[in-house]
Structures are given as C-alpha cells and as structure tokens.
Amino acid sequence: MTIPNTITVGLKDHSMMLIDCNQHQLQELRDYFSFFVPGYKFMPAYKSRRWDGKIKLFNQITRELNAGLYEHVKKFCSDRMYPLQLQETDFGHPALTNQVKHQELIKFQSKLNLPFPLYEYQYDAVTHGIEKKRSVLLSPTGSGKSFIIYNLMRWYLDNHDKQILIVVPTTSLVEQMYKDFEDYGYDVQNNVHRIYSGKDKTTDKPVIISTWQSIHRFSKDWFENMGCVFGDEVHLFKAKSLSGIMNKCVNAEYRFGTTGTLDGTETNKLVLEGLFGPTHRVTMTKDLQEQGKLAKIDISVLLLRYHNDICHRLKEATYQEEIDYIVTNEKRNKLITNLALDQKGNSLVLFQFVEKHGKPLFDMIKDKAGDRPVYYVSGEVEAKDREQIRGIVEGQKNAIIVASLGTFSTGINIRNLHNIVFASPSKSQVKVLQSIGRGLRKSDDGSVTKLYDIADDLHIKSHKNFTLRHSAERIKIYTKEQFPYKIYKLDLK
C-alpha cells in the first residue's frame, strides 16, 4: 500500500531521474527548481516578454530532473514531510553508492607507481569520488586537480570496461592534461586520445580528452560507450553545451566536475550539481598556503586618479566607452610597462582586449625590455605554442608573458611565476580567483607572489565610474579569501 503524498524517484538513465507524484507536488517541484538568471532584467527575451527570466530545472510534463539533484529532492521531501520512495531500474537508483575499503585503495595506488604520493586532501577527494560516483569537486588552483582526476581515472579503468571522457574548455588544457598524465607515468601514447580542431573523432583508446567545442554537436551514439565523464574547469563551459554533452552520456554512471571556484550564484551551482552531483569542497587556498603547499600572495591595488577634466568628460560614458578610454590611455599603459619591467623574476601581465590593449602593451614592453625575454599569448596562438611558452618560462628567471585573460587566467599553471599584473579591470569572482591562481604554485626560491591590481578612479563627487566599482568588487574578493592587500593612490594627471 502506497502512503499518501509519496514521491517516487527512479533513474531514467544515468543523466535523468523520473519523478512520480501527484499534480500538486509536480507544481511544487517546478517552483522549487526554478531560479531567476542573474541579470535577466537586462536580457532581450525578458524585455520583450518572451521569457520570464527563470531557469526551470524540473520538466513538469516529462517529470524529468537531472540525476545529480537527488539530494535536493530528498531535502524537498524532508522539509514538507513527504514520504520518499526509491524505484529500482536497469540503472540502479539515485542513492546507490560504493563501499570504499581503504586498504584496497592504498594497495591499488601503490600499484600505480605514482611519482609522488597523494596529499591527505587529495586522497579524501579520490575516496569521496569513488564512494559517491558523482560530484562537483571544488578545489583551488594549485591543489593538484589533474592528479585527483588521474587517480579516479585509473581506479575506474581498473574496475570497469567503458571509456572515459575528459572534457576541458580549451585546447591548451587538452595538451596540459595529456602532458600531466604522461608525467604521472601513464602510457598516454597508447591509452589517451585527444580531440580538438583537425583531430580524428573516433578511437578505441580507453581515455579521450576533448574540448567541449569539438564534441557538443556529436550524436548521442558517440557518447554511448562513456562510463565515466570528467568536466575540468566547469565554470568556463557554456551551460547549454555542457548540458547537451552530459545528457547524451546516458551510460556514464561516474561523473565529476572540477573547478577552483563557482560564480557565487545559486543557479550556476544547481545547474552544475544537476549534471555532476553535489558539491564537495576538497580544500581551500588559505589552508594550502598555511601548509606551505602554495605560495603566499601580496596584493598591491594601484588606484589611478585621472584628471578632473577627464572625469567630467566620462561621467555619462557607457561602460564600453569608459573601457575603451582606459585601455588606450598612453600614461596608463606606460605605467603598466614600467611596472612589468621593474619587477624581478617571471611576470604575467593579463589583458582582456587583444587588438585594443594586448598587442600594444606587448609591443611597448618588448621595445623597452632589451635582452629580457617577452612572450605574447592570446587565442590566436596555437595550443602547442602556448604550452611551449609555459615550459620555457618555467626554466627561466626573468621572463615576461603578456597574455589574454581567456587563455592564461584559467588552467595554465606556471611554477616559477613571481609577479602578476591585472592590466584590465574585471569584477568576475571566477576570473579574479583563477588569475590569482596562476601565481600560487610555489616557485623554486619559495618567494611571495606579488599581484598588482590596476584600478581606475574617475569618480565625480558621489558618482562612481564603472571600473572603480569593479575594483571595489575585487577588494571584496581579497577580503573574503583573506588575501593581504594594500591600496596605493597614484596620480595619473
């Protein structure tokens, strides 16, 4: 006999749950899993009244919900005192987990002949992944996410016979992941296939590393043999494309998303958890710094005050007009150039706009650098060339890389990086933290990483300009993450 108001949950496949309940509960579930998209009021579809501004994760008609949200369904039922019943299907049920025997796991890892042992937090992350089968693994840059992925990958291959798909946002990360696995002692030539522009799309190799752009339009058939999927740096994926890929992996019982940071919105978190499973914090930057595993960071906010005439002229400017003025300002770019050249050690100068800012900055720095090596990296530079530059810099002590935020703020780790310059204003929590992460790997000399945050003050009385407000957002991030910082006011008149 079924208890009244019972909600029954079963797996349609390893991507989707099917929920059986009464009509009233269906409406409750629809509302519970509906969220406003940040900035929806400014989007054309909302303005034209073609869209209500919400993402609706639960399909009330098909009764489908992403399987990774099972824990949220449990909470929904618990809060309302609705009985919850699990239905067994050919795919098992949403609450199915593994029993992890630590002695067996340690024995298995010793068999891998790893070049170095797992840290305790990495071991815990691997254990968590094996046990839960799906998770968003939240772990900062420099914590060894690729090593965690590698250990989970090897465990899966030792226990299952389906293929593994590792999806990354850039070709640089395809190459870096491939190189990391090789460094860990894996026979990548025979076991790992890479897919991006111009690469063969079919393979019998057990591990596939691909950019999401290369495979998101593939038919569902291509994904059928994937039993385990990793999404690396998942905060960078286009939501629709990532959902499309993950929903085609209907036989992927194991799913892991890795990222150093989420964007702070509930919508983003729930979308990712739906695809990969509940969020699990592996470790935090501050903890790794205190343990001596990551470099400490010293932040200097250089607040540039512009001439009052300029401030009055730009008071009514749009965001883009303000940005255009700032990045093309000769005095500002000279300051950045001199700042980069004055630093000792390897330096990374990050810009946002290639033609307007990146290339002119590179030319200015290179012209004044003399014999000092200066490199340029943007989306135009081939992935292999970027990886080569990274390798060259790691062997040098006084190089400068002028790089776009899109290519070097995420996923590219440089061991011997001593200085970072934020040449372009940004308020994105993800971009700021990921960019800082470039300098957190401990250098050979154990020095503190210096970060120079270029901020722009064009305020008039109570009116604060766009980029000044953005700098305030970055300072909030530094405060939240407990990064030490000082503000220096500089006159750009």
Average pLDDT metric: 89
State the end-to-end distance. 81 Å
The helix tally amounts to 20
Q: How many E strands?
A: 20
Work out the helicity level: 25-40%
* Poorly predicted segments: none
CATH topology of the largest domain: Rossmann fold
In what range is the share of β-strand residues?
15-25%
CATH-wise, what's the superfamily of the largest domain? P-loop containing nucleotide triphosphate hydrolases
Q: Which strand order spans the largest sheet, edge to edge or round the barrel? A: 9-10-8-11-12-7-13
Describe the structure in brief:
The protein is an alpha/beta fold. It folds into three domains: 7-87, Translation Initiation Factor Eif1 (2-Layer Sandwich), CATH 3.30.780.20; 102-283, Rossmann fold, CATH 3.40.50; 291-491, P-loop containing nucleotide triphosphate hydrolases (Rossmann fold). Helix content is 40%, strand content 21%.
Q: Could you outline the blueprint of secondary structure elements for this entry?
A:
Layout: E1 7-11, E2 16-20, H1 23-32, E3 34-36, H2 44-47, E4 54-56, E5 64-66, H3 70-80, E6 84-87, H4 102-111, H5 120-132, E7 134-138, H6 145-159, E8 163-168, H7 171-183, H8 188-191, E9 192-195, E10 207-211, H9 212-215, E11 226-232, H10 239-248, E12 254-259, H11 266-276, E13 279-281, H12 285-290, E14 297-305, H13 308-313, H14 319-327, H15 330-342, E15 347-351, H16 354-369, E16 374-377, H17 383-394, E17 400-404, H18 405-408, E18 419-422, H19 429-437, E19 449-457, H20 466-480, E20 485-491
Parallel strand pairs: 1-6, 7-12, 7-13, 8-10, 8-11, 9-10, 11-12, 14-19, 14-20, 15-17, 15-18, 16-17, 18-19
Antiparallel strand pairs: 1-2, 2-5, 3-4
